[in-house]
Amino acid sequence: MLAAAILIAVFITSLISGVLGMAGGIILMAILVTVLSVSSAMIAHGLVQATANGSRAIFLREHIQWSILPAYLLGASLATGLFVSLTLVPDASTILICIGLFPWIARLLPSMRGLNITQKSTAMLCGTLVTGAQLFAGASGPLLDIFYLNTPLNRYQVIATKALTQTLGHVLKTIYYTLIVQFSDSLPIWILLLAMTSAVLGTRVGTRLVDYFSDAQFRKYSGAAILVIGTFCLAKGFSEL
């Protein structure tokens, strides 16, 4: 039953991310962290999301904005180095609270709405903060979103570029929790492989549905969805403290 529930959750959340370019990852993280240990949830989430985002980047590869990558990678390297030196591992309730706070912080700080990831300094800041959030909270979609709110990119370019950078972040997270952090349990390999396959299928369906949205609808619905999800995660996180 647990395996079936995880596979269904992976497919649905990958489909959501395929359409909105985000949101699916934080929903899946909220689910996994409630049924697995933090380290096992991080590893399972990292493998699934790296597969989902990686396949989405491949499906939409002609829309990727490669110029963003060098500065983003520099920021991601700084965040990873800090985490490795400190070996930080959060608890489940803290993860949920952090996930829930990200979308509200993005909406409540007007100065952050002026960020534009196509600028090198902003891309580096994005790489540092978003990778740090991935390593600490598992998911960082709402935080990543604020760096795209004022870009001239269309919905395909946003989804494709997010998918590439998120893939890198989830790979780093998987390596960190596998090699740096000690963990005693893990999902069976066959479940992880099926989950990764389910992620690709959900992503493929989701990317096909993007054609039915305009750029305005894409920004409107993705913003509303992430606030609802953030509120739920906050409530659950505080209830488990």
Helix content: over 70%
Ends: how far apart?
Answer: 27 Å
Please outline the major beta sheet.
Answer: none
Order of helices and strands: HHHHHHHHHH
The portion of residues forming beta strands comes to: under 5%
Q: Helix count, per DSSP?
A: 10
> What would you call the shape?
globular
Structure description:
- With 241 residues, this protein is mostly helical.
- It has one domain.
- The chain has helices spanning 2-20, 24-35, 38-59, 69-86, 92-108, 120-137, 141-145, 155-180, 189-209, 215-239.
- Helix 1 packs parallel to helix 9, helix 3 (38-59) packs across helix 9 and helix 6 (120-137) packs across helix 8.
- The longest helix has 26 residues, at 155-180.
- The chain is globular and about 45 Å long.
- The two termini are 27 Å apart.
Which labels suit this protein?
mainly alpha; 241 residues
Short description:
Helices cover 76% and strands 0% of the residues. With 241 residues, it is an all-alpha fold. The radius of gyration is 16 Å and the shape is globular.
Structural topology:
Blueprint: H1 2-20, H2 24-35, H3 38-59, H4 69-86, H5 92-108, H6 120-137, H7 141-145, H8 155-180, H9 189-209, H10 215-239
